[in-house]
Amino acid sequence: xxxxxxxxxxxxxxxxxxxxxxxxxxxNAKDIVFRSSYEKIxxxxxxxxxxxxxxxxxxxxxxxxxxxxxxxHKYITDFVFVSKNSNNIIEKWLxxxxxxxxxxILNEKKQIVYPDLPKMKRLxxxxxxxxxxxxxxxxxxxxxWESAKAWCKSxxxxxxxxxxxxxxx
Length: 169
What we know:
The chain has helices at residues 37-48, 125-155, and strands at residues 9-11, 32-34, 52-57, 61-66, 71-76, 79-84, 90-97, 158-162.
């Protein structure tokens, strides 16, 4: 669930002219660093898909407030891109790539449904701490994504969280 050994590396696009990190449209843009195999797959998609007009990685910052630590933070989205849809209409997107274990499930009131504490004969503090960490990650992701949705609505973007299911792994 919280694997520290995710695939990491630097992505160099084959089409740098459409990549905001490389084409000079964004001042001080950083190199593209993928932090998982999922992000690497998505980088390849954005780079090679002919309907993607331009794209960038980790260049949009959105402020949000976290109830986990009662502080303001900056959420840096994984990807931003502009593309033509099947009707040839231009769309602007912000995308976050996450394993589905880190995507909160919401009830009908749009509240997070937290997983139950594991039921075991011997429930150790380590297992309790891991469960709390998982709940905190779900909360933090929900807070970030709600802020991203509001930002997208104000800026005429669409927002999507993509998991391994959508990447057809």
